[in-house]
Specification:
Blueprint: E1 5-14, E2 17-26, E3 34-42, H1 45-50, E4 68-73, E5 85-89, E6 104-107, E7 113-114, H2 121-144, E8 153-155, H3 161-172, E9 177-181, H4 187-193, E10 197-200, E11 217-222, H5 226-233, E12 236-244, H6 258-263, E13 266-269, H7 277-287, H8 296-299, E14 300-303, H9 308-316, E15 323-327
Parallel strand pairs: 8-9, 8-11, 9-10, 11-12, 12-13, 14-15
Antiparallel strand pairs: 1-2, 3-4, 3-6, 3-15, 4-5, 5-7
This protein binds NADP nicotinamide-adenine-dinucleotide phosphate.
NADP nicotinamide-adenine-dinucleotide phosphate is lined by residues 44-46, 129-130, 133, 157-163, 181-183, 201, 205, 223-224, 228, 245-249, 270-273, 315, 318, 320.
Length: 330
């Protein structure tokens, strides 16, 4: 890295093809905002979509993807002193402005979260957008009135970024967690995160089920959507809730109103992208204290910018377990 340029992983789209790799970017090519020396980023499903034209996520080309970043302010900005450790994620980062897969980034100061006490920058990126979304899901369920000791809570897409942190957070808070996963080889991993029971992904994603089925879980954290979410809704207990954040299983929701009007089930929408900054900072504060996931070292797998291409492919094929954290200076 020189004063005027830095290493970055970039995707350049031409028609239906994308050329991806590590390159050198000029600081002058960064958008407006506080200059950050990035130390860590992490890999999310959305980054994989942003790196391929069919993902329809990136709004600029070339783009430095990376919706999550943690680093150190390179200059004073908006009341924060140079040297302050900060986190940034969501909003337009890694979508319509360059993101965290780089040694440097610029981010509007009003989007910055000072690193909360209790977290290192690496731990914050093991959590990242995915863990933040999991925390928002758990908070939403508890705000709804879900409490441990009332019955099992399901987590779908359990080996993924959102799912693995959700399993961990719920188990730590005393819930009986049932993890749904398509990875037969990941059962030990899920149990190590705190899952008491495991459901095969295929038992939840089949069409043709009953609109109201046996009441099985008091609540669910769902990051799969599609037929899976429809089937989950049909099996939530009376008055329960599902926090829905994702669509790895599809954007359609082939359900009926019956779970809502006959069982009082609530579908709670979770969005991490436009979360107002004060709420974002408050949830991060909890992620460093009472909602801090355990075993962050086991969930996170460190990679360098050079390894990103393969990991992004793996995310799209559903083959990745846990969180890949990017040591951008490696
Ligand atoms: N609303 C928000 O603010 C927000 C924030 C973050 C993420 N998201 C969304 O949440 C979802 C998960 O994100 P992530 O970062 O956790 O992704 P991820 O790490 O790739 O995990 C997704 C998991 O879903 C499961 N899965 C993969 N393909 C599937 C399929 N075809 N059908 C059913 N399950 C499948 C896999 O778990 P198993 O193998 O264990 O089944 C996979 O590990 C994505 O749709 C993402 O866009 C939304």
């Amino acid at each position: 890295m020189s004063a005027s340029s830095f290493r970055a992983f970039q995707a350049v789209t031409t028609g239906d093809a994308a050329e991806r790799g590590v390159t050198t970017v000029a600081v002058a090519d960064l958008p407006d905002g506080a200059l950050i020396d990035v130390h860590w980023s992490s890999v999310n499903y959305k980054d994989a979509l942003a790196s391929t034209p069919s993902g329809k996520v990136a709004r600029i080309s070339p783009i430095v993807p990376g919706i999550d970043l943690a680093g150190v302010l390179a200059e004073d900005a908006g009341g924060l002193a140079a040297g302050t450790e900060v986190i940034a994620h969501g909003y337009d980062i890694g979508v319509s402005r360059h993101g965290g897969f780089a040694e440097r980034a610029r981010v509007p100061v009003e989007w910055l979260v000072p690193l909360p006490p209790g977290l290192t920058m690496r731990e914050a990126m093991v959590i990242g957008t995915a863990g933040f979304t999991a925390a928002m899901s758990v908070v939403a369920l508890e705000d709804h009135g879900v409490r441990c000791g009332t019955g099992p809570v399901l987590v779908t897409g359990a080996t993924g970024g959102v799912g693995s942190v959700a399993v961990n957070l719920l188990a730590q808070r005393g819930y009986e967690v049932v993890a749904s996963s398509g990875k037969a080889g990941a059962h030990d991993y899920l149990r190590s995160l705190g899952a008491k029971d495991i459901v095969e992904r295929d038992t939840l994603n089949q069409a043709g089920g009953r609109p109201l089925d046996a009441m099985t879980w008091v609540a669910a954290v769902d990051c799969v959507g599609g037929q899976t979410l429809a089937n989950v809704l049909s099996r939530i207990s009376y008055g329960g809730a599902v926090a829905a954040s994702g669509l790895t299983g599809g954007a359609q929701l082939p359900t009926t109103v019956l779970p809502f009007i006959l069982r009082g089930v609530s579908l709670l929408g979770i969005d991490s992208v436009q979360t107002p900054i004060e709420r974002r900072r408050a949830v991060w504060h909890r992620l460093g204290s009472d909602l801090k996931p355990t075993g962050l070292a086991d969930i996170g797998h460190d990679i360098g910018l050079d390894e990103l291409d393969g990991v992004l492919e793996g995310i799209l094929s559903g083959a990745i377990t846990g969180r890949n954290v990017v040591d951008v200076r490696r």
